[in-house]
Specification:
Order of helices and strands: HHEEEEHEEH
Strand order of the largest sheet: 1-2-3-4-6-5
Helix content: 25-40%
Largest sheet: 6 strands, antiparallel
Radius of gyration: 13 Å
Structural class: alpha+beta
Length: 115
C-alpha cells in the first residue's frame, strides 16, 4: 500500500493523538468516500469536489479540526463544550470530539460546497 501525505504527517504524531486523528480520518473516508487526502497549510485535510472539506492536526497540548468558520457558527450549540475560534475546534484526549460532531461539521461543509 502506498504511503499518503497524511500517513507521512501522522508518522511524527504522538501515538495516542495519532490514534484519535486516525479515527477522524477513517470516519471522514467512510462518510465521504470520494474525498481526497491533501496537505493544506502543513496539516492533513480532505478536499471534496475540488474544494476544501475539513482538516485536522495535532499540537503539543491539544488536537484540532478545521471545518472553516461557517459550520462552527451553524453548530455552535453542539460545540459549546469545546474551545473554538474562527475556523477551528480544539479538543484533547481527555475531552475528545465525538465522531457525531465531526459528521455534522462535514455535513455542513458539504452543504456549502454543493450549493
Amino acid at each position: 500500500m502506498l504511503m499518503t501525505v497524511i500517513d507521512e504527517y501522522l508518522q511524527n504524531v504522538e501515538p495516542k493523538q495519532k490514534a484519535e486523528l486516525e479515527k477522524i480520518r477513517a470516519f471522514v473516508h467512510d462518510q465521504v468516500p470520494e474525498a481526497e487526502e491533501v496537505i493544506s497549510y502543513g496539516m492533513p485535510a480532505f478536499k471534496y469536489k475540488g474544494s476544501y472539506l475539513i482538516g485536522f492536526a495535532a499540537f503539543k497540548d491539544h488536537m484540532s479540526v478545521f471545518p472553516t468558520p461557517e459550520p462552527i457558527e451553524t453548530l455552535k450549540d453542539d460545540l459549546q463544550d469545546f474551545r473554538t475560534s474562527k475556523g477551528t475546534v480544539l479538543f484533547t484526549l481527555e475531552h475528545p470530539l465525538s465522531l457525531e460532531a465531526v459528521g455534522k461539521l462535514v455535513d455542513e461543509r458539504m452543504k456549502i460546497i454543493n450549493k
